[in-house]
């Protein structure tokens, strides 16, 4: 593997929204993005999502993890088989629990077994070292976001907000080296509480297009109460577990379904709005990525409430569906080169760290 020259890497992401596996190819030297390659999406079935849901919150060694680990690996291998060969794989696994305050995090899935079955080197276990060194272990995409801003030649402060199960924000000044030009943190709940509510109430995996929320009325008192939680006044960087705000579904249970969906949607937007004062300089533009950007009601509220230009990242010419998979391809290349994948201003680690390890086939 020529780690000092651009190589093709396939990155994978199975996120906290539990919808499926994203896989994307990237040509990179671990510093610059040279070319975006093909990508595929392997959705989880309803039964598979139920299996994954059943082990959320379980730590390594807990009973019942083996069949779910096999499901995760099989789904990733299925996606891998649909893409051109690559020199390296970036494998994140499935986050089941994340507790950086107690120096632990758990992503289910063996990169060593993936390497054996794929016949290709795998970079994986990206978060453990950061957490062990006092970092939050998340978010890890910021260094890739910095590379994206460089790729697009953005010459002013900007931000990228990813709306997955949890929302996270990266503030970027690509004119500076990464260690000085980044700040990142989780903003709060994004799709997870809304998706959980939709499954429980309607049987649908998400509020398609934000249609249900758009027909409801926001409980503004509930939103104001939500923003009083200590997390929102904490300085960045900081991170959350998928279920850190799982009680939100219970808090809206007394509302009519449309009003509950509207309120959960407003909570996602309010968390992002509350993040603005934490940034060093107000960004001139914000790119929205992740599944939440497909929710028209979320996008409408963001455009209305944020004081800067808000873009769907697809409108910038990037693939918002594959951004996190591309990020782990990029991170894998950095691991192969021994370059930092996290920084004090992105995860609160005490120094820049090269997280992750390489398993050979």
Question: What tags apply to this protein structure?
Answer:
2 domains, globular, 13 helices, Nucleotidyltransferase, domain 5, seven-stranded mixed beta sheet, alpha/beta, 12 strands, 361 residues, single chain
Total count of strands: 12
CATH top-level class of the largest domain? Alpha Beta
Quickly give the CATH architecture of the largest domain. Answer: 2-Layer Sandwich
CATH homologous superfamily heading of the largest domain: ATPase, nucleotide binding domain
CATH topology of the largest domain: Nucleotidyltransferase, domain 5
Principal-axes shape call = globular
Give the amount of beta strand, in percent: 15-25%
Low-pLDDT windows of residues:
none
Please tell me how large the radius of gyration is: 19 Å
The main β sheet shows up as:
7 strands, mixed
- How much helix is in the residues? 25-40%
Structural class: alpha/beta
Taken together, the total number of domains comes to 2
Q: How would you state the average pLDDT, rounded?
A: 94
The separation of the N and C termini measures 13 Å
Give the number of helices.
Answer: 13
SSE string, helices as H and strands as E? EEEHHEEHEHHEEEHHHHHEHEHHE
């Amino acid at each position: 593997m020529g780690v000092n020259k651009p190589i093709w890497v396939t990155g994978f992401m199975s996120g906290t929204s539990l919808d499926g596996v994203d896989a994307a190819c990237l040509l990179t030297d671990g510093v610059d993005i040279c070319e975006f390659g093909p990508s595929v999406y392997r959705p989880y079935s309803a039964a598979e999502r139920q299996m994954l849901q059943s082990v959320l919150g379980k730590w390594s060694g807990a009973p019942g993890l083996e069949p779910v680990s096999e499901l995760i690996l099989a789904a990733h291998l299925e996606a891998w088989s649909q893409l051109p060969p690559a020199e390296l794989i970036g494998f994140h696994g499935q986050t089941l629990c994340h507790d950086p305050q107690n120096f632990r995090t758990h992503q289910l899935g063996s990169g060593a077994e993936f390497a054996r079955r794929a016949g290709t080197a795998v970079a994986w276990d990206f978060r453990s070292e950061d957490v062990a060194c006092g970092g939050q272990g998340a978010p890890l995409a910021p260094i890739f976001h910095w590379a994206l801003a460089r790729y697009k030649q953005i010459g002013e402060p900007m931000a990228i907000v990813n709306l997955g199960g949890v929302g996270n924000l990266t503030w970027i000044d690509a004119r500076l080296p990464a260690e000085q030009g980044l700040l990142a943190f989780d903003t709060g709940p994004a799709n997870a509480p809304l998706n959980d509510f939709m499954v429980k109430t309607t049987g649908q995996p998400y509020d398609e297009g934000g249609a249900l929320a758009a027909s409801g009325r926001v409980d503004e008192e509930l939103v104001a109460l939500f923003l009083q939680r200590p997390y929102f006044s904490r300085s960045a960087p900081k991170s959350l577990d998928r279920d850190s705000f799982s009680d939100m579904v219970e808090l809206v249970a007394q509302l009519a379904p449309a009003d509950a969906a509207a309120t959960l949607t407003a909570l996602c937007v309010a968390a992002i709005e509350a993040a603005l004062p934490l940034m060093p300089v107000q960004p001139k533009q914000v790119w929205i990525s992740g599944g939440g950007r497909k929710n028209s009601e979320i996008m409408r509220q963001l455009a209305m409430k944020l004081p800067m230009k808000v873009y769907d990242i697809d409108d910038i010419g990037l693939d918002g569906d594959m951004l996190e998979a591309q990020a782990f391809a990029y991170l894998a290349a950095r691991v192969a080169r021994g370059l930092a994948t996290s920084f004090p201003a992105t995860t609160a680690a005490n120094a820049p760290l090269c997280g992750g390890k390489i398993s050979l086939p």
